[in-house]
Give the backbone structure.
Amino acid sequence: MIIIPDIHGRNFWKEAVAGREEDRIVFLGDYLDPYPHDFPDKTDDEIWEQTWNNFNEIIEFKKSHLKVVLLLGNHDLHYIYSGMDCGSRYDYKHAAQIKEKFNENKDIFLLAYERTINGKRFIFSHAGIHKSWTAEWFGPSVTDKNVVDYMNNGYLANDPSFPRALGQYSAYRGGWESYGSMVWADVREWWSEKPHLSLFGDVQVFGHTQLNDKPINFWNTYYDLDVRRGFLINDDGIVCEMDGTPIPIMKKE
């Protein structure tokens, strides 16, 4: 399985998926809202053109490869839901065009995805799904068994509670809540947690919190992969670099 973290208009995904058409490929969302410093030699119009072209290529890649999974991030949902606060770098100029593209392709995007690998249940989302967040917004309706289906059904059914729930973010992101939503949770919110208290599934894989160049592995149960390159989950359920090197467990200093 190949995992592609936050795109934000970048091209790195193309190298990661080249020649891997038979693998399951999961994109973790945030296709839009590029960082200008990633494109120092391009004009604003050129940055937009690359971002838009990448987004359309990813959509077509999904349509032509059944094993591709496209998840949604906060930088996607604030175009889809008018009720969500606009995040950083929101593209007001092209917002209507972006929203139309999402509406045309609504059924090919998901909020979460799960897959069992070597007996371990992996749950993929943009920022990680915390039990405290689901308990606050959805109560006992969300369980470990149904969490992925519940989130995807809420998105596809246009549940009116979803924009407010998905828009929640913690003090780490300038908010007031203890925990962010599944598209807003900061990786630091997971650091002090005991996996059995907060974890849906056996392993959660997400992006959202941009790191320098090293992904984060907490106890082999939480992974933040937002480092601008693709990753591999092998048949043993080990999260690795594309060359097969396992991501080491992060040690707290």
Remarks:
- Residues 2-241 form a domain with the Purple Acid Phosphatase; chain A, domain 2 fold (CATH 3.60.21).
